[in-house]
Amino acid sequence: MRQVVLLRGVNIGPRNRVSMPQLREALADAGYADVVTYVQSGNVVVTSRKAPARVASDCRRAIAELFGLDVAVVVRTREELARVVARNPLGEVATDPKRYQVSFLDAKPPHDVVARLEALAAGSERFVAIGKELYAWHPSGVARSKLWAALAVQSLGVTATARNWTTVTKLLELAGG
Fold it and tell me: How far is CA 159 from CA 25, 65, 67, 175, in A?
């Protein structure tokens, strides 16, 4: 089964540096097949029969052992990622894939967190929460967006990591979708 491994907060500036070639090699040595990375921001696609939670814990452990970092990891199967793309609840308004973000969570967020995020969408921004994904459209970019600032911090009550729509669709393609 193809699975997409999403690392939170790696290779952004000088901190949390993770070498993708070293990570690919470590995961292959751990028994994962067809290990592919996409860009340097912590996107890995693997083939494994292990449950997604086990894949996440294996990746987290490998990163801790190799790089001495405690990095949050969220995993989606190819089928789950295909559903994320098929839903595309903001597809009619999100015209620039680099400003359209999906936050992948390890659990469904609390209702009060979703309500707080919905209230932060300002102007032409849009926000939709579906299960363990949060879709956000930032037509003016993320620099001054209060919604993006809230999505980017670790105060959602769950582990989260975001990818723009270009990356989401490329990962699905790499996973065979």
Answer: 26, 21, 20, 22
